[in-house]
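Q: Predict the assembly, please.
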Amino acid sequence: MAILSIRGLSKRYNTGLFSSSVDALKDLTLDVEEGEIFGFLGPNGAGKTTTIKILLRIIYPTAGTAFIIDRELGDAQPHQIGYMPENPYFYRFLSGEEFLIFHAQLSGMPWRDVNRRVDELLEMVGMQHARKLRIGNYSKGMVTRIGLAQAMLTDPPLILMDEPMSGLDPIGRIEIRRIIMELRERKKTIFFCSHILADVETICERVAILNKGQLIKTATVSEMLSEVASGQRLVLHQPPESLAEKIRNAAREAKDVGGRLVAHFDDKATGDELCREAMIAGVQVDEYAPERGTLEDYFIREIGGKNA
Amino acid sequence: MREIAALALNTFREAIRNKVFYIIFIFALVLMASSLVFTQLALGEQDRVVKHLGLSAINIFGLLLAMFVGVNLVHEELDKRTIYLLLATGMSRTQFILGKFFGLFITVIVNVLLMTLLLFITIGFTQGATITPSLVYAIFLYLFEVMVIIAIAVLFSSFSTPVLSAVLTFMCWIIGHLAEDLLTFSERLEKEGSLALAKLLHWIYYFLPNLELFNIKNQVAYQESIMVFVTWKAPAMAILYTVILLTITSLTFAKRDVR
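A: Predicted assembly structure:
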């Protein structure tokens, strides 16, 4: 069942004195299923943040609408949507604990539940130790974690995350990834907006690619990867020169790396044949496997040229 | 209602943590130093001098606070994008405007009350000076003036930069205090035949609030009976004016894309 249905959403900004206009979003239609981690991918300025802002009623669409848990935009229940903004824009003068209490009050949480919920969340994101410290003194990773806690305050079924990993160090990214995985186990739907492809590839099940305000493609990550996963990779340990020469001629690309020959074949049958030949000749085969494409390859293939 | 209270309290807390109350120390210094000097110069008139000085200082410092915090109030939320999360919780634009307005109004009230306390202490130490009901009423009335100024500052802050908002708010304050002169001038122009200009000034007079209605410093200083100037007119006008201004602000802000 779709928890979020976007239908023909468009946003046009009028810029300048003479009303020239820019289409930030053009006729976007997509569905996000309940319980999935949905990647919303695109280069800077693709319209990702615009979409999120429309869903949260921070800006208004020029055309189209969206349904969040069967309620139309404007009629949706705000406590059913969690929001983690890009570069968290939080009040720096508040402590982490005060910030969460303030947002709990705004979301209409009953007083008796506020302290218990804030404690739970600080524990979940590992911020108990810094609860009294002002956000202005937090590191980037700590700000992200407190932002995640805020997004989960009302235990919403849908969480919109806008570039949650940008600017984090590797440890910080692993930590945020852990929290996102935990949310998935709790059947939360996550709308994960990013331009960091490696994160999307690791975390998301399904992905939509957006470019210049237009939807380019929606598919599962594995479908996208299978499209770019072409060819075979063969690694041989010190093959005889005659065989090496034959491989160099047949391969798309072949390199000598520290006494090993690394070759890439477009055609699986050629790869299979040469691998068999090497084995018969008694050459040590270090590796022979299908080449694994990345989301980055797919992304570049789909929109790389269009942005030039 | 709870959302407005939470935001108002948060705005008040921000003011405290941004140390805006330090203005009171400057007030205390100005008040004490000027009282010391001027009461020496005006023997027998200490009561009048200290009250006039005290009320003037409260007026100026209250205005500074209302104006400079007020013009940043909405703009800063937009600039730092802290408003995104507020709107994402389902807070309406009107609730946002009201929360920010009341937050600053509470800040100014607390500030004015602390300055009043300091004034009372100064009066206590000044020979021949007494705290009168008219003095208390003057401060009460002043709070209504500040309320209007904050509403004006919030309106400008919702669509222009802090500097421009400050200039516009200050201009409204000056014209508001010159309202009676504006009317006299327009009547004179009418007699002289400049009908168009006279009409324009007349409109400005009716459009902008007459802030002199809140100024009873002289009456207080000259110990006129409080019965002479207690009126419902000024507070009623301030409330009506504030409601109109906040409604305009909310309506224009409601249609706006927050970018």
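The first strand of chain A starts at residue 2 and ends at 15. Chain A touches chain B through 26 residues (CB under 8 Å).
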